[in-house]
Specification:
The complex is a heterodimer of chains A (about 180) and B (about 375). With about 180 residues, chain A is an alpha+beta fold. Chain A has a single domain, classed as Chemotaxis protein chec, CATH 3.40.1550.10. Helix content of chain A is about 35%, strand content about 30%. In chain A, a hairpin with a 2-residue loop joins β6 and β7. In chain A, α1 packs across α4. The longest helix of chain A is centred in the middle third of the chain and has 25 residues. Chain B folds into 3 domains: about 120 residues, 3-Layer(aba) Sandwich (Rossmann fold); about 120 residues, Response regulator (Rossmann fold, 3-Layer(aba) Sandwich), CATH 3.40.50; about 120 residues, STAS domain (Transcription Regulator spoIIAA, 2-Layer Sandwich), CATH 3.30.750.24. Chain B has 15 helices and 15 strands. A 5-stranded parallel sheet of chain B has the order 2-1-3-4-5, sandwiched between helices. In chain B, strands 7-6-8-9-10 form a 5-stranded parallel sheet, sandwiched between helices. In chain B, strands 11-12-13-14-15 form a 5-stranded mixed sheet, sandwiched between helices. The longest helix of chain B has 20 residues. Chain B is elongated and about 85 Å long. Classes of the chains: A alpha+beta (about 180), B alpha/beta (about 375). Chains A and B meet through α1 and α4 of A and α1 and α4 of B.
């Protein structure tokens, strides 16, 4: 089985940038700009919000298992998550308010699923066949995710219309 | 027939997007959140198409697809995969089980409609089913012709209509145009290079948005081989060059199913007016003849008891027109409607020359006819004779 280390940073950056761009452009008509990576010293779990902001986040998670295993977290600030949901489903803010958080969770889960799908399809075509897991959603503020020690972490920051979007990628080292 | 499309996806978001994508088409959307539910709905409702995700809880899409293909009652239902699983090997593996098409998420609604439209005969829902479009409504007409002079001739000839005549010279431009604005009718020159019109015609017929758009072939009169080929592939009409604009307009109205009755029939202060145009071609005669009975009945129903038949613009009298006038008078008599004729000097003279029409009496203007009909007793239907 190939080691995750063989999948290098430029390759990961290429796949995730393309996947985020494809999903947001196709489904929402937005073109997020890549604004840089967040350095992760020795794979430590630095929080995504540097100032431990109280901003509420909606975080979608989808994993991929196979020749390469990993997880991708897609962080959206709650107002951006609401905006994306409205655009994706053709709803107004009052309609979304009435529909409740479940709808936002499902929409962000699906956007994450598509994004991780695009990323992992790149891996499949590069010779690392793997399959997607079912999306899950995390909500909250001022939290951090600590990867297991054998995982490598790559954090990519995007910006779209003044909204931040973060793709946090955890890859498990090869067995 | 209203088609049934089953979307099987654990994401409610995707199911909502699918429902939204098909809402302007004549079909019902059924939903299921996993393979088990999907099989149950498929067995109960026998959908015409299944849109199937792969990664789902309880039973995934691959297992559901395998079970569908193993079930004699379900295996004929076409399946389009709609999934984020898009690696080459995965796609090939699933394709081998038997799917009609594969659409990788993210997807545009148009792409989904286009793929579904290749499998089932999707028809757009009419926005205003109760009201037929009339000749006074605007329409987008696309002329695909590599000779600008022909486009100009059509634009000039139809400038009295409210239609927008758009001209393009290549297949590519036509496809771009149709993507942005599906036209109400297309005219394609068969002289486009490399049988371009036939290729374009096929593309239009496989696109759900232009599947039912009337498409006319423009061809030189002597090119009989091309005309036969156009008829065989299913062009809606053949228009020969040099183009007879009035014939073209008439055929276009018919193909777009436009209500042209207002061109010939109107109501004026208790009178039904039927007016024939200057050039009464056979297609015009046929058109008026079709509207005649319903229009006269409608007038009687609305309380009108008098009708003016105005042919003063007519340039020549021919047998088609005479038959139409006899038919009109007969209809009036059947419905107890008084009528009077309005004609010009030439028509009146020509009428004197025929045995059957020599006794017809004409008034010089609609007002005069109306005034004379006003004097007559309402209950006395009569042929206006002098």
């Amino acid at each position: 089985m190939p080691a995750a280390a063989e999948i290098n940073e430029p390759l990961i950056r290429e796949y995730i940038t393309r996947a985020v761009s494809d999903v947001f452009k196709t489904m929402l008509g937005r073109v997020p700009a890549f604004v840089g990576t967040t350095p992760q010293p020795n794979g430590s779990a630095a929080p995504v919000t540097p100032n431990h902001s109280q901003q509420l986040y909606v975080v979608g998670t989808v994993g991929f298992i196979g020749e390469v295993n990993g997880l991708i977290y897609l962080y959206l600030e709650e107002p951006f998550a609401r905006l994306c949901t409205c655009q994706l489903l053709g709803m107004t803010e009052p309609e979304l308010e009435e529909a409740g958080d479940e709808v936002i969770n499902d929409a962000i889960g699906e956007l994450t699923n598509m994004t991780v799908g695009g990323f992992k399809n790149g891996l499949c075509d590069a010779g690392y066949p793997c399959k997607l897991t079912i999306p899950s959603i995390l909500r909250g503020s001022n939290f951090s995710i600590e990867p297991i020690s054998s995982a490598t972490r790559h954090t990519f920051n995007f910006e779209s219309g003044g909204h931040k979007l973060v793709a946090d990628i955890l890859l498990k080292a090869g067995d | 027939m209203r088609y049934k499309i089953l979307t099987v996806d654990d994401s409610k978001t995707v199911r909502i997007i699918v429902r939204k994508a098909f809402k302007t088409y004549d079909c019902d959307i059924l939903e299921a959140g996993n393979g088990v539910e999907g099989l149950a709905v498929a067995a109960k409702d026998t959908p015409d198409l299944i849109l199937l995700d792969i990664t789902m809880p309880v039973m995934d899409g691959v297992e559901m697809l395998t079970k569908i293909k193993a079930d004699p009652a379900l295996k004929g239902i076409p399946v389009i995969m709609l999934t984020a699983e898009g690696g080459r090997d995965n796609v090939l593996k699933i394709a081998k089980i038997g799917v009609r098409d594969y659409l990788v998420k993210p997807f545009k609604e148009e792409a989904l409609i286009e793929k579904a439209g290749r499998v089932i005969d999707l028809k757009p829902l009419s926005e205003q089913p109760a009201k037929a479009k009339s000749i006074y409504d605007s329409a987008d007409i696309l002329v695909v012709e590599d000779k600008p002079v022909i486009i100009q001739q059509i634009q000039e000839g139809l400038k009295h209509t409210p239609w927008k005549i758009h001209g393009v010279s290549t297949q590519g431009e036509a496809l771009d145009f149709c993507t942005k604005t599906p036209p109400d009718l297309m005219l394609m020159s068969l002289s486009l290079p490399e049988e371009g019109a036939f290729t374009l015609f096929r593309l239009m017929r496989t696109n759900v948005k232009t599947k039912y758009t009337p498409i006319f072939a423009l061809v030189v009169k002597t090119e009989t081989g091309q005309q036969q080929q156009a008829q065989t592939v299913g062009f809606s009409a053949i228009i020969t060059k040099p183009i007879d604009i009035s014939e073209l307009e008439s055929k276009m109205c018919k193909a777009m199913n436009l209500d042209t009755s207002q061109r010939y029939f109107s109501h004026e202060a208790g009178f039904l007016i039927m007016k024939l145009p200057e050039n009464c071609s056979p297609s015009v005669v046929a058109e008026v003849s079709n509207y005649l009975k319903p229009k006269v009945s409608e007038a009687v129903d609305a309380g009108h008891a008098r009708m003016v038949i105005d042919i003063h613009e007519l340039k020549t009298l021919h047998m088609g027109v005479i038959k139409l006038l006899f038919q009109t008078m007969q209809t009036c008599r059947e419905l107890t409607l008084q009528f009077a004729l309005v004609g010009n000097a030439q028509i009146i003279t020509e009428c004197k020359g025929f045995e059957d029409t020599r006794n017809w009496v004409f008034y010089g203007s609609v007002d005069e006819a109306k005034a004379n009909l006003g004097k007559a007793a309402p209950a006395a239907p009569q042929l206006a004779t002098a």
